[in-house]
Amino acid sequence: RRAPPGTAAMSSGGTLSILRSDSYAELSQYRDQHFRGTRYDQERLLRKSCTLYVGNLSFYTTEEQIHELFGKSGDIKKVIMGLDKVKKTACGFCFVEYYARGDAENAMRYINGTRLDDRIIRTDWDAGFKEGRQYGRGRSGGQVRDEYRQDYDAGRGGYGKTVQCQ
Amino acid sequence: SNSSLESNLEGLAGVLEADLPNYKSKILRILCTVARLLPEKLTVYTTLVGLLNARNYNFGGEFVEAMIRQLKECLKVNMYNEAVHLVRFLSDLVNCHVIAAPSMVAMFENFVGVTQEEDVPQVRCDWYMFAFLSSLPWVGKELYEKKDAEMDRLLSQTESYLKRRQKIHVPMLQVWTADKPHPQEEYLDCLWSQIQKLKKDRWQERHILRPYLAFDSVLCEALQHNLPPFTPPPHTEDSVYPMPRVIFRMFDYTDDPEGPVMPGSHSVERFVIEENLHCIIKSHWKERKTCAAQLLSYPGNNKIPLNYHIVEVIFAELFQLPSPPHIEVMYTTLLIELCKLQPGSLPQVLAQATEMLYMRLDTMNTTCVDRFINWFSHHLSNFQFRWSWEDWSDCLTQDLEKPKPKFVREVLEKCMRLSYHQRIIDIVPASFSVLSPANPVCIYKYGDESNRSLPGYTVALCLTIAIKNKASNDEIFSILKDVPNPNQDDDDGEGFTFNPLKIEVFVQTLLHLAAKSFSHSFSALAKFHEVFKTLAESDEGKLHVLRVVYEVWKNHPQMIAVLVDKMIRTQIVDCAAVANWIFSSELAHDFTRFYIWEILHSTIRKMNKHVLKIHKELEETKARLARQHKR
Predict the structure, then answer these.
(1) Helix, strand, coil percentages in chain A from 3-state DSSP, rounded to 5
(2) Which of B8, B11, B518 has the CB atom closest to A63's CB atom?
(3) Do A3 and B333 touch (CB under 8 A)?
(4) Does the residue A5 lie in any domain?
(5) What stretch of H or E contains A76?
(6) What is the DSSP letter of B180?
(7) Transmembrane region positions (chain A) (predicted)?
(8) Count of structural domains, chain A
(9) What ipTM goes with this model?
(10) Which of A111, A136, B107, B356 can bridge A142 by disulfide, Cβ–Cβ 3.0-4.6 Å?
(11) Within a domain: residue A98?
């Protein structure tokens, strides 16, 4: 006999896991390749972190705008703007650190995937800011994603760096 | 569809019946959890239990016993919302022939009997009354058919309780002070009106989905169980009952003339729909896409104006006093998800709602206006600030302190925080410039050559150069020594360190140099922390620092807020100084501006958190000491 649909909610693998589901606050697949330590260390830090990485910002988005938006999920301890390693100007990402993890979780649930400065921004758990991590890791100084992308993005310096050099 | 639901239920009942010998306790546990946590799907699961009971009488009995145990547990640990769901589930089990109607009536008699208890909080009696009344949409008909005399007695006892109970909380909880167009009713009064109307309609209720009706032939063969006599657990010192509520209404059938008719405010359908939508949000608040999907797939879509109900329920929660059930930003994002799923209809309802809320600003509770401002500005920032501002030109003819122009000003200020000054100038018609926020630039007193006659001007210049050359705190102190103290004449004794001019020169200069961004300003506060602490040692010093911060940044309230926050956290100023500053006569002209209350609330929150933290540390230390003494 086949079990009818709906039995999944009653299966032995986690009673009513649907109700406990909190997928927006979970760790993503991304792991920082430059992290110094084991995978296990990194994941442990991610699970108790109060710091979020924020991506897809416009180069013109200010700390003030970030503070206003992310302040909606709780008191912010610090905002660290991501900088082009060469130019030392904003290059489209930042870190937001909260005092309480619960506030960071709410940012993952309700601010991730919404707009800042007309752009859909993306947040992800970060293991914690360390000096040097505020710089882009792309060859030209900005973020890696701006090295190779083919599209034109007015808020992120126009075409990708490799395209610009052609 | 209904037929697939029925065949699913039948199939599932068969599977579970077969699993009972091996998985009975697991199945019991899951069904009890569902009853407690999925009230919006109540009738689906009561039908399932009914089918199981029909096939296995003992299981039905054990389930009822488990539910009663769970109910007692919930009441003991103050889980009153879950307890209501359990009571409702039990009452619907009467409809599924699992529980005998007379025994349910007996339980309700004990509930209503709580209103006779002496020296108990009114909210205790309220809860038992609510548990009884709110189950009647599901089971009123059946109970009245079987025990009409007893039910009439219960209803009359209900009426007299509701007449004599106190309602001083109502004005505090109402979102609008006006009764038009919709009165903001006390929740038990509203429910009572709804039940009275239901009784008048001979208990005919047509909204609730009742899958058990399709199984009537099977279920009526089943043997029923009697609920054991239920004594409500007594009131204790630790009992904490739910707070009373006011029912939020903003729509009626006239608001959607094209679509299906919205059930009236005193119809039981309205109650059931609102209850279920609130339950869906409570179940899925962490998962915004699921929440939006579940709300939009609420059954009865073509018979009720679902979008209107959803918007009304969401604003009901957002504006709930004293606090919304969930964090405010959740509602903003949920509404955006709903707009994404129903782009052809929901945005229009939301625009209509916004317009209605704007029209009624004059009588709206100030706290709710603040939430409206926060929601609307954040919502607009996700839609390129597109709005028909000209529709609100009426506010331009009013005094700027009146609610409507004030609302628009605060919205534009908040919109600016999420974008930038020129953007706001661009998005509003030219006529709205009087309501546009100030350009958030710093005002440096000593910046202009024309101010060189001001006392402290030369020291400010000196200080500027020194700080740019990375002077140490000691160097700063020695430069500031040259600043005369305008209070010198009043100085009678020793240790009078308050020098307002020193504070002014230092704070103005430093904030001006660090004006570029929040981070620059925070670094400045950190680097010169020692100087701040010394200058602001006295209470007057702290107050003056805040005054100077205001003078420099009065065009940029957001900057003032973050600086005040940082200064409290680094103990440059304390919460008392902030309170004195906010309530000082110099700030009276800004008293009704949103940012002042943001700062005050934030300060109180920090103070509360601090008190809780050190209270916890105290308790932990006491416990450690006690353990030490034992040894």
Answers:
(1) 35, 20, 45
(2) B518
(3) no
(4) no
(5) strand A76-83
(6) S
(7) none
(8) 1
(9) 0.94
(10) A136
(11) yes
- For A161, the 3-state DSSP assignment is helix
Query: Domains, chain B, ranges and CATH?
Result: 5-167+185-220 (1.25.40.180), 269-435 (1.25.40.180), 449-487+496-615 (1.25.40.180)
Hey, are the CB atoms on A6 and B12 less than 8 Å from each other?
Answer: yes
pLDDT tens per residue across span B567-617:
999 999 999 999 999 999 999 999 999 999 999 999 999 999 999 999 999
Establish how many alpha carbons lie within 13 A of residue B87's alpha carbon, considering only the half-sphere containing its beta carbon: 28
**pTM confidence score:** 0.94
Contact by Cβ (8 Å): B116, B161 = no
**Looking at beta carbons, which residues of chain A come within 8 Å of B29?**
15
Tens digits of residue pLDDT in B440-474: 999 999 988 888 888 889 999 999 999 999 999 99
Residues of chain B found within 8 Å of residue A19, distances taken between Cβ atoms: 37-38, 283
Note the helical H segments in B96-164. Answer: 101-113, 122-133, 136-146, 148-164
Q: Pick B378's closest partner by Cβ from A5, A67, A72.
A: A72
For residues B199-211, one letter each, b for 16 or more C-beta atoms within 10 angstroms of the residue's C-beta and e for the rest, the string is beeebebebbbbb
The CATH number given to whatever domain includes residue A114 is 3.30.70.330
Check if the beta carbon of residue B131 is closer than 8 Å to that of residue B112.
no
Preceding amide of B211 cis, omega within 30: no
Own/partner contacts of B76-85, CB < 8 Å, gap of 24 or more, are B76/B233, B78/B238, B78/B239, B78/B240, B78/B241, B80/B127, B80/B241, B80/B242, B81/B242, B81/B282, B82/B36, B82/B37, B83/B131, B84/B127, B84/B130, B84/B131, B84/B134, B85/B35, B85/B36, B85/B37, B85/B39, B85/B42, B85/B279
Tokens 């169980």 found at: B225
Question: Given an 8 Å threshold on Cβ–Cβ distance, is B30 in contact with A15?
Answer: yes
Distance from CA of B321 to the nearest CA of A (A): 19
Full domain range(s) for residue A81: 35-131
